[in-house]
Design goal:
37% helix, binds pyridoxal-5'-phosphate, globular, alpha/beta
Length: 374
């Protein structure tokens, strides 16, 4: 493959020396659970995401589960409560909701942003709905005045799935006056899965919030439900972030802004240079506040286009080929009418967009796409 979709080895190669240094620091420290690496990473993440607290956890799905569990333990959500969720998302968003005994209320995406269509939010609110899970899909903030107004009007908790959008900003300020994703709602989940914009060398995640009670509940729940040693206030889990991943993430974090800027440059090149009428390009806001975890085009002949690109040395991926409500595990939601999400699932195609792809590569890929005809 001349233009691989993603090459994690190549992606981490420039950091290999400092990653090894960080790993050696952990080996030599004699501290393999918690400690300063985790604490320092949490401090840096809280600052980056304009939040008062960050709690390192095991992965992104656990981050979401811990947030919902904590709200239930704190009495602010009850089992069975409705949570508005986007129909177009990675299944982990929905798994967290159902795992906690909450009821997902699916809302269709906007055709242009692929994010939850906030114009439809108010129609989805019922007596039972107590929260909104907003997913900043593909690195674009899903947050605007409509969402903030609906949340305020009905007293809904706003949880952000920020797995794909670390460093992104909303054009609309949160009630706290912040713009960064991870600070817009009441709590946010991060994933540092290796392919994410800030990737660990294994599984890792975090929760950010400016609510001290929620931060304490998440921290306790992730540590056997213990608020201090041998004192368990909750029936908890073991979902801690390990210091090896924390040390690696701390080391890579200072380079995130430049990596995100590179993704923006590639997105701008694709948007300027792809001109095939068979292909629809994603919206690029001006100024561009997204961090382009994925650059997702749509094409009615998606499978033919993907095969053509493979033949021409361009790796692609699909995010996501089957929407959550049509997965076998969610048979109970299969009859929902979500045509926009279903149409997107059959037409989306993700192009290479990472530090493994150069500006010249993006131009070459755009030319290859422009020569596609079927
Ligand atoms: C990656 C991802 C998750 C899950 O994160 P993990 O660390 O893989 O558990 C959740 N939501 C979205 C939108 C994601 O992209």
């Amino acid at each position: 493959m001349r233009y691989p979709f993603l090459d994690l080895g190549k992606l981490n190669a420039p950091y290999a020396d400092i990653i090894k240094e960080a790993a050696c620091r952990v080996v030599d420290s004699g501290r393999y659970i918690g400690g300063t690496e985790v604490a320092e990473f949490e401090k840096a993440l809280a600052e980056l995401s304009q939040s008062e607290y960050a709690v390192g956890v095991s992965n992104g799905l656990d981050a979401l589960r811990l947030i919902f569990r904590a709200y239930i333990r704190l009495g602010r959500l009850r089992k069975g409560d409705g949570v508005i969720v986007p129909a177009n998302t990675y299944i982990a968003s929905i798994l967290a909701v159902t795992d906690c005994g909450l009821t997902p209320v699916f809302v269709e995406p906007d055709e242009h942003t692929h994010n939850l269509d906030t114009k439809l939010l108010e129609t989805a609110v019922t007596q039972n709905v107590k929260a909104i899970l907003t997913v900043h899909l593909y690195g674009r903030a899903c947050y605007d005045k409509t969402l903030a107004d609906v949340a305020a009007k009905y007293g809904l908790i706003v949880v952000e799935d920020n797995a794909q959008a670390i460093g992104a900003e909303s054009a609309y300020a949160s009630p706290r006056g912040t713009y960064r994703t991870g600070s817009l709602g009441d709590a946010a989940a991060f994933s540092f899965y290796p392919t994410k914009n800030l990737g660990a060398l294994g599984d890792a995640g975090a929760v950010t919030t400016s609510d001290p009670q929620l931060a304490a509940a998440v921290r306790a729940l992730a540590n056997y439900g213990s608020d201090r040693r041998y004192h368990n206030i909750y029936e908890g889990l073991n979902c801690r972030l390990d210091p090896m991943q924390a040390a690696i993430l701390r080391t890579k974090m200072p380079f995130l802004a430049e990596e995100n800027a590179h993704r923006r440059r590639l997105a701008a090149i694709y948007s300027a240079e792809i001109s095939n009428p068979a292909v629809s390009k994603p919206l690029v806001d001006s100024p561009d506040r997204a961090v382009w975890h994925q650059y997702v085009i749509t094409c009615d002949k998606r499978d033919e286009l993907a095969a053509y690109l493979t033949d021409n040395g361009v790796g692609t991926d699909i995010h996501y080929p089957v929407p959550p409500h049509l997965q076998p595990c969610y048979e109970r939601y299969a009859s929902l009418q979500l045509p926009v999400a279903e149409r997107l699932a059959s037409s989306v195609l993700s192009l290479p967009i990472s530090s493994c792809t150069s500006a010249d590569d993006a131009s070459a890929i755009a030319s290859i796409i422009n020569r596609f005809s079927k």
